Amino acid sequence: MLIVEESVKLPNHFRIEPELREQLSSRPGHQRCVEGQGELLLIVHEVPKPGVPEREALFFWKNYQGRWSQNTGPGLTGLHDLLERYTHAIDGHEAVIDEADTAAEIFGILRHSGPLARSTRNLVVALEQVLAIDGDDREIRAFRDRARELERAAFLLHEDARVTLEFWKAERGEEQSRAAEKLGKIAYRLNLLAGFFLPLVALGGLFGMNVNIPAFAKSSFWGIFFLGLIVGATLLFLVSRPIGEIIELKPEAATNQLRYVSQKLRRGIRRITTKR
After folding, report:
1. How many other CB atoms are found less than 10 A from the CB of residue 172?
2. 151 and which of 80, 120, 261, 269 could share a cystine (Cβ 3.0–4.6 Å)?
3. Do 67 and 60 meet the contact criterion of CB atoms below 8 Å apart?
4. How many CB atoms lie within 10 A of CB 50?
């Protein structure tokens, strides 16, 4: 049962000195140790919840006789249970991070690991303040050492989640880069194919018009037809090879190649019409 004091809410069995009470405000505040008239008041926070900025405070009072009291009675079992809850929260996230498959899962861990790291760090500072006043308290020293281990574990958890998320981001970027490179090569092939057959399409459209076609065009029809099939088959063989085996050409080289093929095609057509 809690009673309302002039400053902060404390358990009704905490008979703290006025000098100690004057150092408190209407809110618990950050994790710390307050001293007054030979008494100590240790203020720590409950394990933070993801997305909740408020912190629930736990109080531990050490009277001038050197005896600790907590919300539920004498002793420091509540501090031991608090460290157990921190351990359970950190271990739970460490088990999830190894099996996470989505960025949303890693982001959920990051939202909790950050407050966990800060809270455990401040918990260590509060316990250090107790030892700075009473360095012979072996129980507090044991809790301080364990809190340091939790601080390190929470920090490593936060860094591991952050690095995992950044690695996934870089990996997705590499996959998109490779996909874009493949699409670029495919687009290059299609452009090469369209540019190569453009003269043939123009000639076919010209010769297919419903007009009086010259005699030399009629006589060389089959020559043009078979020449187009041969060139088409050759180009189909070239473009059907796997992506990795294609030699990348610079734009200047591709233009020269198209010009060379077009010249060869025109020479072949001219040679056939001359023989006819």
Report:
1. 11
2. 120
3. no
4. 14
Task: Name the residue type at position 28.
Answer: P
| pTM for the predicted model, two decimal places | 0.62
What would the pLDDT profile of 117-156 be if each residue is shown by its tens digit?
Answer: 999 999 999 999 999 998 888 999 999 999 999 999 999 9
Q: How far apart are CA 15 and CA 210, in angstroms?
A: 112
- 3-state SS string over the chain? CEECCCCCCEECCCCCCHHHHCCCCCCCCCCEEEEECCEEEEEEECCCCCCCCCCCEEEEEECCCCCEEECCEECCHHHHHHHHHHHHHHHHHHHHHCCCCCHHHHHHHHHHHHHHHHHHHHHHHHHHHHHHHCCCCHHHHHHHHHHHHHHHHHHHHHHHHHHHHHHHHHHHHHHHHHHHHHHHHHHHHHHHHHHHHHHHHHHHHHHCCCCCCCHHHHHCHHHHHHHHHHHHHHHHHHHCCCHHHCCCCCHHHHHHHHHHHHHHHHHHHHHHHHHC
Asked whether the beta carbons of 122 and 31 are under 8 A apart, the reply is yes
Query: What is the token pair recorded at 245?
Result: 């085996």
User: Token digits for 58?
Assistant: 């736990």
Q: Using CA atoms, how far apart are residues 53 and 143, in angstroms rounded to an integer?
A: 25
Q: Contact 225/272 with Cβ under 8 angstroms?
A: no
pLDDT in tens, 226-268: 666 676 667 666 665 665 444 444 555 545 554 554 555 455 5
Distance CA 40, CA 136 (A): 14
List the chain domain ranges.
2-173, 177-275
